[in-house]
Amino acid sequence: MAKKIFILASIFFLMFSGISYAGSIYTPTGFIYPVGTDDIEVSSSCGRWLERPAESGGCYPTAGVYHIGLDMKGSRGNSVRAIADGIVLRPSAGGWGDGNIGMLIKHRSNERGEFIALYAHIRSYDAKKEGDEVRAGETIGKLGAYPEGGDHLHFGILHPGLKSSVFLVGLGRWSIDKYGVKELGYYDNGFIDPIHFITHNGPDNWLSREEGDSCKFLFPYQPWFFEVCIADSGSCDDSVVKEYEECVKNPDASCTEVKSGVWSAIGEGGRTSGGTYGVGGDSYEPPAYAKKNFNLDLDFDIMDSQDNNHELYAGQDTLASGMEVVLRAKVEAKGGDAHDFIEKGKDTIEVDSFARIGIGGEWFRVCRNYIKVGSLQEEESETTIFRYVIPLLASGEKISFKCIADAEEEVWEVKESDNTSRIETFTINNNLDVNFISHNLSLTNGRTFLTVGDRYGLQVFIKDIGTDPSPGRIRSSYEIFLGGEWRFLADDESEASELIPGRDQLEYISDEGSVIAPSVPGFYPVRACANYQVSVPETNIFDNCTTSVIEVRAAPVIRSITITDPSSGEKWKTSSNHTIDWISQNITGNVKIEYSIDGGSKWYVIDSSVSNNGSKGWKMGDKPFKDIIKSDTNNARIRITSLTYPSVTATIAFSIDHK
Question: Which of 9, 261, 487, 640 is deepest in the core (most CB within 10 A)?
Answer without folding.
Answer: 640
